[in-house]
Design goal:
The protein has 271 residues and is mainly alpha-helical. The chain is 59% helix and 6% strand.
């Protein structure tokens, strides 16, 4: 069970990594152990898979002190972009060893020892200062991150404006012109939505009755309907009708007073 759980965790991590690497805005920082076969490293494999042209990848070669004698020249060829070309090239760093970590070596001391390693190395002392050491790596990444943000900002602003416009259109479709009221407290949102719901109910009722609220008295159709209703009521109590004549009178009254439902629906029900 434990092995299955570990395998599942690895799959989840790989999917997460691949999801990020596949995004065009992602800067791929490929950390490569210089003491191993660089061309078959996992970092290079993923970089080639998601950034085949090397446009977004920055190579970082580490553990330089563990490189076998005679292999330094091959490593320098990688650094010089001769073997696996990358647009941003490579940087060299020497991090703290496990012994330094166990001895709680401070960061300032570790950085001093790193620069000492480069300056005294017969193979790596010629590497430019801006391309070697952790401080140089930090400055390089900061510049690239700022540049990447500047490039992506116009697209992000455009996408954001498009989403805002879409939301505003949905609010207007719901009859909400000032949606900023919804951005305040829960109580304010509840009160605002309740008012809008009440207004919508009034509009719905107005459409159903076909008469504006408060204008029934001045509406000719409404007055005519009341007049016919009163006449019908009086005639029913004053006289006795034959069946056919009564039905005809009812039909006439229904035609005169029809509302949102057509009168023929009532005729079908009556017949």
């Amino acid at each position: 069970t434990s092995r299955q759980q570990d395998s599942g965790s690895v799959d989840i991590i790989q999917e997460l990594i691949q999801d990020y690497l596949d995004r065009p805005s992602t800067i791929i920082l490929a950390i490569i152990q210089a003491c191993n076969d660089i061309e078959t490293s996992a970092a290079i494999k993923y970089a080639k898979m998601f950034d085949p042209d090397g446009e977004r990848t920055i190579g970082v070669l580490t553990k330089l002190d563990l490189v076998d004698r005679g292999a330094e020249q091959k490593l320098l060829e990688v650094f010089e972009n001769k073997r696996i070309p990358l647009k941003h090239g490579y940087l060299l760093v020497k991090c703290r060893t496990q012994e330094d970590i166990d001895n709680n070596i401070e960061l300032s001391e570790a950085l001093r020892k790193e620069e000492q390693f480069f300056s005294k190395s017969s193979k790596f002392h010629s590497v430019p200062l801006e391309r070697r050491g952790c401080p140089s790596l930090a400055r390089f990444l900061t510049r690239e991150l700022v540049r990447n943000i500047k490039q992506a900002l116009p697209r992000l602003i455009s996408d954001l404006r498009g989403k805002i416009s879409n939301v505003e259109q949905q609010f207007r479709h719901l009859g909400i012109d000032d949606y900023t009221q919804l951005l305040f407290t829960d109580e304010a949102r509840s009160r605002y939505l309740t008012d809008k719901l009440f207004t919508a109910m009034q509009l719905f009722r107005t459409e159903i009755h076909g008469v504006e609220e408060g204008a029934q008295v001045n509406n000719p159709l409404y007055s005519k309907r009341n007049e016919l209703n009163r006449e019908f009521y009086s005639e029913m109590h004053r006289s006795k009708f034959e069946n056919s004549k009564l039905i005809q009178l009812i039909k006439s009254a229904m035609i005169a007073t029809q509302g949102p439902e057509p009168a023929d629906v009532c005729f079908r029900l009556e017949n």
